[in-house]
Amino acid sequence: MEDIIRVLPENIANQIAAGEVVQRPSSAVKELLENSIDAAASDITLVVKEAGKVLIQVIDDGKGMTPNDALMSFERHATSKLKEAKDLFKLKSMGFRGEALASIAAVSQVELKTKDAHHELGTLLTIEASEIRKQESVVLQKGTSISIRNLFYNVPARRNFLKSNPVEFRHIHEEFQRVALANPHIKFSFYHNEEEIYCLESGKLSKRIVQLFGKQYQQQLIPCEESTSSIRVTGYLGKPEFAKKTRGEQFFFVNNRFIKNAYLNHAVVKAYENMLSPDWHPFYVLFIDIDPSKVDVNVHPTKTEVKFTDDRILYGIISSAVKQSLATSNVAPSLDFTTDVNFSLFASKSNDYRVSESDKKYTEFKNIPSERTSSKNWELLYENAHNEDSLSREHAKKELSTPENVLLNSELPIASDKNEVGKNTLCIHNRFLIRQVKSGMVVVDQRAAHERILFERYLDRYQHHQGLSQSCLFPSQVNLNAADFNLAMSLKSEIQKLGFEFEAFGKDCIVINGVPPELGKFSEKELFEELLEQFKWNQSELTLNTFENLARSLAKRTAIKMGQQLVDEEVNKIFDLLFACHQPNFTPDGQATFVVLSLDKIISLFN
Q1: Which of 10, 39, 312, 430 is 20 to 30 A removed from 289 (C-alpha atoms)?
Q2: Which residues, in sequence order, are CB contacts of 404 under 8 Å at separation 6+?
Q3: Can you tell me the mean pLDDT for 176-198?
Q4: 322 and 440: one domain?
C-alpha cells in the first residue's frame, strides 16, 4: 500500500494556521496594535482602507527591530517572550512580536519597515504569501511601520466569507476601542479611507472613555475600586439611568488584556439588581490585576476567553466592588460592607439567575391554599394567573403549525357589525386581547402583534419607495460616537426610507429634521440611538439584509410596550391590521403573536 501521510509545505501550513489567528481584518488589527504596545510605543497610528480588505497599516514609535529580528518575526512559532513552557504562566504582555505575523504574511502582501535605536539604517521587507520578495536597508526613524494589503487575496474562499464593509469596520472599531481603553497612557490615531476617526491624546482612563464614547459620558461615570491581597479591581461604572437595551459597552480587562466572561458579567449585572429594568445593560470598564499564574490565557486562539483558578472568589470581589461603588455614589441604597465577604455564598447565589421570575411565581401559585372560604384566594389566583402564559408559549407554537389554525385566520375578524366589535373583544392585564371565533377563541399578544404590523409596513414602504416622514417642529441634535456616526451615514439612504430625515452637523453629530409618522410620543433622539443599537445587535447575531435589519430594529423599538393601556379603537385596529399581514402568526424574530384555543381544548382544561 502506498503511503498517504505527508508533511504539508510551509506556505500551506501557514495558510491553515491563519484561519485560527486571522479570522477577519479586525484580527490582524488586534495583533499589530498589541505588537506595537509590547514595543513600548507612546504614539500609535492605525490606517485602514475599505474596512481592512485593501489596507491595514500600523505605525509606531516603539523600540523597532534589528534586521535579523525583522526576518525572524515572520517565522512560525517565533517569539521574543518565551524561553520555556512555564513562561506562559508569567506573561503580562500582549503580542509575541511574531506570533501571528507568519500567519498574516501567508494570506496577504506585507511590507515591514523597522529600525531600532542601535542601527543607523532600518530594514525594509516585502513578503507575499510567505515568500520574501525584497529585503534592503532604508533610512527610517526609530520604530516600526507594517502594512498589510489585500488580506486573503490568495485564499478566495476565505475572502468571500468576509462581511460587508460596515460590518467589518465595526469589528475593527471594536478592537481599536478595546486596545485604546486598556492603554490610556498611549496616544492613538485612527484613519479609515483617509478620514480621521479618532485622535486620542494620552491621559487618564476617564478621559479616554469620554474621548471614545462621547462627552455625555462625563455625567455617568462612577469610579470603582476594590483590592485584596491577590486581586485588584479598578475602573468605572455607568449610572443606572444611562443603561442601554443592548450589550456592547461592557469591558473586562485581565492584566490589561480584554476578555469575555459571562460569569463575571453576571456579577456586575447582579449588583445593579432592582436598579435596572429587565433587559437593560449597564456600562462598565473594569480592570482586574491578578497573578498571571492564576490565569490561563491560552484557552482560545484570540485570547478573549480565559480560565481562572478560582473564579468564584473573583465573582464575589467584583460583585462587592460594584455594590460598594454604587452605594457610595448615592445611586443605590446604603449597604453594610463592614462584614467579611462570604465568597462561597456569592458562588452559591450566582446560580439564582437560572430560575426565571415566572418560575418563582408559579411556585407561589402552586402553594396557594385550596380552601374557598376566603376571597383572598381569588385575588391571589388573578394576581398569578398571568404567569401561566409562559407555560403555554411552546404549546402555542406547535398549535400554530397545524392546518386547522391556518384556516382559522380567515374567520378571525368575526363581527359583521362594526359597532359590535369592541364588545366582542376583551383586554386583560393590558397585555392580551381576546376575541371569540367560531371554533373557540383567539388570544393576541398586543405588543408582538404591533411589532409584526410595523415590520410589514416598513418593508412595504421600502418596496414601493414610499418613505413617509413627518417634519419635526424642533430639529433634534444627536451626538454619536465615531463608529455610530459612520454607521448612520453609511446607512443614510436606507434609514431615510424608514421615514427619518437627518443630516451631518459637525464632527460625529447629526440633526434629525423628520421622523416616521408612527413615532407618537417617542423621543426622536432616543429612538434614533436605539435604532442603531438594535441594528448593531441584529448584525452581530443574525444574517439579514440591511433594510430588513433596519425594519426589524425600528419595529421592535416603536411597538407598543407590554402593559400599555389601549382604547377599544386601538384594540380593534390591531386585530384588523394583524390579520391583514402576510405572516400574522409570528413577530420577525419568531415570537408567537396569537394563540387559537379551540372549544375542545378549553373543555379539556376542565376535565
Answers
A1: 39
A2: 439, 598
A3: 94
A4: no
- Domain total in the chain: 3
Residue that has been written with the C-alpha cell 409562559 in this structure: 390
Residue 565 has which C-alpha cell?
393601556
CA–CA dist 416, 180 (Å, integer): 65
Q: Which domain holds residue 287?
A: 213-354
Flag whether 382 is in a domain: no
Nearest to 315, CA basis, from 288, 291, 292:
288
CATH number at residue 311: 3.30.230.10
Cα 199 to Cα 180: distance, rounded to the nearest angstrom: 11
Angle ∠(329,331,332) on CA atoms, nearest 5:
105
Q: Is residue 364 part of a domain?
A: no
Is 196 in the same domain as 262? no
- Residue type present at position 418: K
Helical ranges in 386-445 per DSSP H:
389-400, 403-408
Q: Is residue 378 part of a domain?
A: no
For residue 164, give the C-alpha cell.
460587508
User: Helix or strand or coil: residue 45?
Assistant: strand
Q: Is the dihedral of CA 485, 487, 490, 495 positive or negative?
A: negative
- Beta strands of 79-174 (E only): which ranges? 109-115, 122-128, 131-138, 143-149
* Residue pLDDT, tens place only, 54-89: 999 999 999 999 999 999 888 876 665 555 555 555
Report angle CA 411, 417, 567 to the nearest 5 degrees. 90
Beta carbons within 8 Å of 53's beta carbon, 6+ residues apart: 25, 150, 151, 159, 162, 165, 168
CA dihedral over 136, 137, 139, 144, signed as positive or negative: positive
114 closest CA partner among 158, 63, 42, 151? 63
Listed residue (589, 582, 573) closest to 541, CA to CA? 589
pLDDT in tens, 265-307: 999 999 998 888 777 889 999 999 998 888 876 655 556 777 7
Share above pLDDT 90 across residues of the chain, in percent, rounded to a whole number = 34
